[in-house]
């Protein structure tokens, strides 16, 4: 009973951690902005403005987004990143966070390159997966065959799964789009990709 309760607590904690972290970061930013600007606004206006941190945070994020969309803004961001890249400790932290954010938000549309079929977990059983990257770096150097990185998603939640490295010649590339592959997985196989209707040998 205690073991089962512990498993429930751990599972619940893992499920809530992303939400808790997101809320914590947002509230921290809002409180920081509020603590910086509230005293100044109180002096200018003569009274405390409630919700100022939230409003200013929203406007700052919106403003940065607008600036980052134009050419001058991109150059300024690149210049700032080049400066951060010269600071040893800051460089490591910033680069890591930047890579995580890019993989989660900016590259999610191209993270899955192709829908593939592999025999896994054993011969004769097929799994639908997504090609994410060619085998590179130390992994490729220490394998006898050329491998590719395949993400095997779970059903019906394709955001979780496992990464496996498969020899290229053992991968079957499918014609379906990534979107069709995701629909097939989320639906548990009930939403098959659209195919042209062909007559069978009996003309049916």
Automatic annotation (TrEMBL):
Keyword Membrane among UniProt keywords: yes
Q: Does the keyword Cytoplasm apply?
A: no
Annotated membrane-spanning segments are: 7-30, 50-68
Keywords noted in UniProt: Membrane, Transmembrane, Transmembrane helix
Signal peptide, first to last residue:
none
- Give the species: Orenia marismortui
Tell me what this protein is called: Putative membrane protein
Q: Known InterPro entries for this protein?
A: COV1-like
What superkingdom does the record give? Bacteria
